[in-house]
Target: YggT family protein
Amino acid sequence: MISLIFLGRAIFTISLYVLILRLWMQLARVNFHNPFTQFIVRITQPIIGPMRRAIPSIRRIDTATWLLFYGVALLKIIFIFRFQLLDAPLFTPYYLLFALAAMVHAFGHLIFWLLLFRAILSWVSRGQSITDELLAQLTEPLIAPIRRIIPPIGVIDISFMIFVFILMFLNLLAIDLLGNLWLML
Model:
């Protein structure tokens, strides 16, 4: 049973990451000729395409993708409560709020992983790959404000480390506020 719970959580988490990337790439206006960007769009288009016909965008807000993102987070919450806490009800209105926490949790963890991949690639490829370009387009708006306050020290850029410390602090604050719920997400 534990292996099935792991598999279910992994599928929901990866689905959330893919939807976040789709929304974030639209917002950051990344290069859509990048193969990874095209991959994200292609795997989400079969679901989001029909949803867009029924749910129009509001200005630059892709409401169909946001609703799907929320729906997947809600399904993840129901899955976690149903299979990890065996006596939990199938649905309660609190799940609607917990789904927002799951969205924030997934976004924070995705930011961490993208920053880690970008830092590792900066040591290896020195900005010469299309992956570096994509990661820079996604993460630079987050890092730039810190870099303006604390510029690089020689060739060492500590803005990544500062941002990760901020993420760690926010993660610990969420644990203080939400307790075991945050840890289960």
Remarks:
- The chain has one domain: 1-184.
- The helical segments are 2-28, 35-54, 63-84, 94-124, 130-149, 159-178, 180-184.
